[in-house]
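Batch job 17 of 40 flagged for manual review because the log was empty.
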Amino acid sequence: MKVLLVEDDKALAEGLQRALADAGVLVEVAGEGKQADFLLFTEQYSVVILDLGLPDGEGAQWLATWRNRGMELPVLILTARERWSDKAAGFSAGADDYVTKPFETAEILFRLRALVRRSHGHAHPLIAVGDIRLDTHTGQVTRAGMPVSLTAQELRVLSHLMHASPRPVSRTELSEYVYDRDQEPDSNVIDVQISRLRRKLGGSWIETLRGQGYRMLEPSADPGNRGAGEVD
């Protein structure tokens, strides 16, 4: 999961960024609406956390603008404003969830995971591809009931593939969801992550599609599967 946090309180933003990073979530921070506006339409994110009181305008107004421009990302408003009128304005602008400060980081994490899961059409917190299970609440992965140990980056790659399944996901898309915009990973870094996942899960679960990228699929689910060993 890759989050854009739109928050002008630097201490709060850095604290939430660190706390979510400990749970394997990649967080990029924008301190004002204008910066967020640029990032939302140039970078890839899974979900947005938005404060209402920004130095260059109301968060709800920025959100309404983004929705009018076609942005479909789920948005969680995180604000100190508790009045019903503020909540109504946030939801009317296009918010998907609303949390007031102070907050528990664990609650934010649960809500973010639920928003991302539902945006991909998954209602249940357990996402399955065959006998591979991803618990979106805990980040635990199992195969045939046995735990699979993954690094944070491997988990982000696998999570994105499982959320998207059976849609193919390009290398570029995976790279943008695994690394922040200030990093410049080697051109083969995604290939390395995929190779490691194949060793841990079994080589036939992640298919390479020439010219399209990778697809997570139960081996028996697609008779036309060209095999995980192909390269594009």
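Reviewer: the log was empty due to a logging misconfiguration, but the result itself is present. Residues 3 and 27 are 5 Å apart (CA to CA). Unflagging and moving on to job 18.
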